[in-house]
Amino acid sequence: AMASRVSSKGKGKAGRGPEDGSTARCVKEWSTWTMKKAKVIAHYGFIPLIIVIGMNSEPKPHLSQLLSPV
Amino acid sequence: MGSSVSHAATPPPSIPPPPQHAVGLAGVLPPKSEEKSERKVNWLNLPCPVPFEEIQREALMSLKPELFEGLRFDFTKGLNQKFSLSHSVFMGSMEVPSQSSDTIKVPTAHYEFGANFLDPKLMLVGRVLTDGRLNARVKCDLTDNLTLKINAQLTNEPHFSQGMFNFDYKGKDYRSQFQIGNNAFYGANYIQSVSPHLSLGSEVFWLGHQRKSGVGFAARYDTDKMVATGQVASTGIVALSYVQKVSEKVSLASDFMYNLMTRDVTSSFGYDYILRQCRLRGKFDSAGCVAAYLEERLNMGVNFILSAEINHPKKDYKFGFGMTVGE
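Predict the joint structure of the above. Result:
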């Protein structure tokens, strides 16, 4: 019974009222979608975020210092 | 205070106790330093314990240096006090975990770019590799006592990314932490100082997807000269460690781990020499493995690293060398 309930998770719960099932499913799908988008944003944006915060901290470093190896 | 009277070994001295030897000269000498060890214990003012995950940190620092095989070069360039960039090159073999007892080594080479922002209240560390993997660490002080830590490894392959959120609360003589991780991992731990030298802690965790849970207990006893810790977990692991600080420059460490499920016992002994120009750590363990790790300071900010690990039973010999430039 546990296995079948787990496998039918994504397809809505049989036997419950239709409203409970669809809102729970919507919330779950929406939260999965936000987690996926958040992961992509974090993956691409974390290092640029650190660089932006660092370049704006005092004393402000110059842009050339960012690229030169010295 | 009432508590100090019942627990003190000697009556609390409001004036220095009269010295036992000659009266005239002893009266002008400063009181003996042995008084410190007999100072009464203020049970309401115990020190804050170390965080639960760092309970074995002295033993881990001495016994588990970052051994590697191959060439390693790290360059850290500071742009200002708080912000720095790092470039890191590694060429060598990395071990791939395998089911059989043979070690499988895969030759790898990668370049890693990193950016660090270190502020007293906010710390951001990010490292990205050439294959797109990102290692991110965030530590943010939300209030004086509450800290948020985020640790994540994000990969391009789906379902291989990991992340963990930790909320740490630091009380006067206790610390507590709540963890949320991917794969529905929830954990909490709590550690409390029960005496100036002894702290006790416990942790619980729950893995949602595998429906596994566990409980663990830990104790740590530390003085200026030694640290002893013990940990027991319901996953069947018993871990003990002992570190003795022999002098300012030398520490000796040992640890012992017993896995009740697989009946595996591992024990290791190591030394840690912190000298003016170098730091040498070496260890040998019951699995027949001998390792050493040397960091030599050649110049201001330039460190030369040698790493060696010899596993006699498996005939696995790993030697590495490298250089670290920058802080």
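The first helix of chain B runs from residue 2 to 7.
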